Amino acid sequence: MTRRLALALLALWAAALPAVAQEWPARQVKLIVPFGPGSTPDIVMRLIADHLQHKLGQSFVVENKPGASGNLGTDAVAKAEPDGYTIGLSIGGPLAINPLLFGKLPYDPARDLALITLLTTQPSALVVNTGLGVDTVAELIDQLRKNPGKYNYGSIGNGSLSHLAMEAIALKSGTKMVHIPYASSPQAMTALLRNDVQMACLPAISVTPQLGSGQVKILAITTAARSALLPGIVTLREAGVDVEADAWNGLIAPARTPEAVITAVRHAVVDALNSPAIREKLAAQIMEPTPTTPAEFRARIEADIARWTPVIRAANIRVN
Questions:
Q1: Distances (CA, A) of 126 to 80, 154, 205
Q2: What pLDDT sits at residue 318?
Q3: Strand stretches in the chain, DSSP E
Q4: Peptide bond into 82 cis (omega under 30)
Q5: Is 121 left (phi over 0), alpha (psi -120 to 50) or beta?
Q6: Cα dihedral sign for 175, 180, 184, 190?
Q7: Is the pLDDT of residue 21 over 80?
Q8: How far is 147 from 137, CA to CA, in rounded Å?
Q9: pTM (2 decimals)?
């Protein structure tokens, strides 16, 4: 009888999944961002939250949980109830890069999280101080090869995408530079303007407002193809350095969240990303909406792991 009852309950649960998805959201949804207010992930999540609240008639509350390179907030998502009422935003760090950098994480990205969709991608820009006297990537590489270890580059922290991108450039081009980490993009950009560092690979939105000063110059961007938002700027690959390092963010949920609920969330979020108003606001931040299936999201994470593993090993990068 116990076995029959269990099977009957399982059948009822399975039959109820579509209804659960249709009911979502029946109450307030918490949206966890593992970085602080005003960060790029926070901006993206709040745009989506506003759209969903207006469209679906429920409250979507953004909760910032910064700390430990995004691991703290991501862990909060992993340990939440898998019912569709706690959703998280993550970037490449907590899902692909941090497992390579940290000796131990409080969560397993593959086991403890469900992927919903990628949200946006954002190009990084290889930017130099104009005092360096180079106008192309080829000229920069030539200068670095002639002067190994002479020049500094800035990043937004040890193990950050900006750090890995520059180490990948060094590895691919056979050059050597000195790494100086900063706490944020604005601080790294200020150091570049002061010539404390001579180059950096930073989010394009942190670089473009400074181009009018004449003190800095973008040599290339890190996307696989040229960006319509930065017309006329070549990619690193076009310039002869096979490095791709665009930033992305995506939506995640606790593992074991019902598939029907994941699908309902994804459809609602893709609708938000297709909104002309949101696309316009993202473009102002030099971000492009890039919704995907969960399988495509997984493939992107796996590609990043394959891309950054040899760079991290070669540069012996570790985060305590």
A1: 38, 11, 12
A2: 86
A3: 29-33, 60-64, 86-91, 113-122, 124-129, 152-155, 178-181, 199-203, 216-221, 247-254, 288-289
A4: no
A5: beta
A6: negative
A7: no
A8: 15
A9: 0.89
